[in-house]
Structure formats: C-alpha cells, structure tokens
Write a structure and sequence with these properties.
There is one protein chain. This protein has about 150 residues and is an all-beta fold. It is about 0% helix and about 35% strand.
C-alpha cells in the first residue's frame, strides 16, 4: 500500500503480467506483452487507511494481451491513471476492460492507430459498462519508452 516503483522490466506470457495495488505506485518504462491481462487493478483497500495517492501507469508498452492491457475490478473503489502508454493488439480488442464506476484516466495513450481507441486491428478500444474511462486527448503516434 506504500509507494512502489516498477521500472524497466519485460513481463510476458503470464495470466496477469503485473497486479497493481492502491496507493502512490508508479509503473514505468516496462514492456508487458502476451499476457492474458497486462495489468490487473483490484482498486480496493480493505481494512486499511485511505491511500496517499493514485497508481500511475506511464510510458509502458502493453501490447498483445490475450484479453486486455488493463483490467479494473468492478469492485474498485479507488481510481487509477494510465498515461503515455502503447495499448494495442489486444486479443479481444479491449485495451481497457472494466465494469467499475470509478474514474480511469487513460488520456495521452497510443491505441494502435492515429485515430485513437477503436476495434479495427491493430487498434484496441475500451470495453466498459459505465462511461468512466477518459481517453481524450490521445496520442496519434507510438510512445517512445526512453
């Protein structure tokens, strides 16, 4: 629940590439590919004090996920921010998959094409039951991780 940093890793071929907890964590400069979920976020803080910040997923390549680049639990009660990432070529077409009612800040990401989020390969879109994912403005070019 404290401040964690995950920097400069390659994570591939897992069910969950990386699970992020609530709090002021930062995930940056990672290549997370070919997982069922690149990042899973339960978004809960059961039995703990209110976290001191929001997790930030920034400047990563989350590519080729078999389900989604980011999965957020429908039970999430804390937000997450995802900025300047490459999110595309997801197996089911969903870069973000959720039914939460909590805000997800997904601005400034590259979704696979200059047109932004979508469901025509290699682009990936947002699969959600609630309008909580903010995607604009988005990047029209792939994000450099350096």
């Amino acid at each position: 629940l404290g401040a964690h940093r995950v920097v400069g890793n390659t994570i591939s071929n897992n069910y969950i590439g990386l699970q992020v907890g609530v709090g002021p964590s930062r995930v940056t400069h990672n290549v997370i590919t070919d997982n069922f979920y690149a990042i899973a976020y339960p978004g809960q803080c059961i039995g703990c004090a209110t976290p001191a910040g929001t997790p930030l997923i920034v400047r990563n390549s989350l590519i080729g996920s078999r389900n989604a680049a980011l999965w957020v639990s429908d039970q999430a009660t804390y937000p997450i921010a995802m900025r300047q990432n490459n999110l595309f070529s997801s197996g089911w077409g969903c870069a973000i998959n959720t039914s939460t009612t909590v805000a997800i800040d997904a601005r400034q990401n590259f979704w696979g094409t200059a047109a932004g989020p979508g469901f025509t390969a290699p682009s990936s879109g947002v699969c959600t039951t609630n309008p909580v994912v903010k995607t604009t403005p988005f990047s029209t070019t792939e994000i450099a991780l350096n």
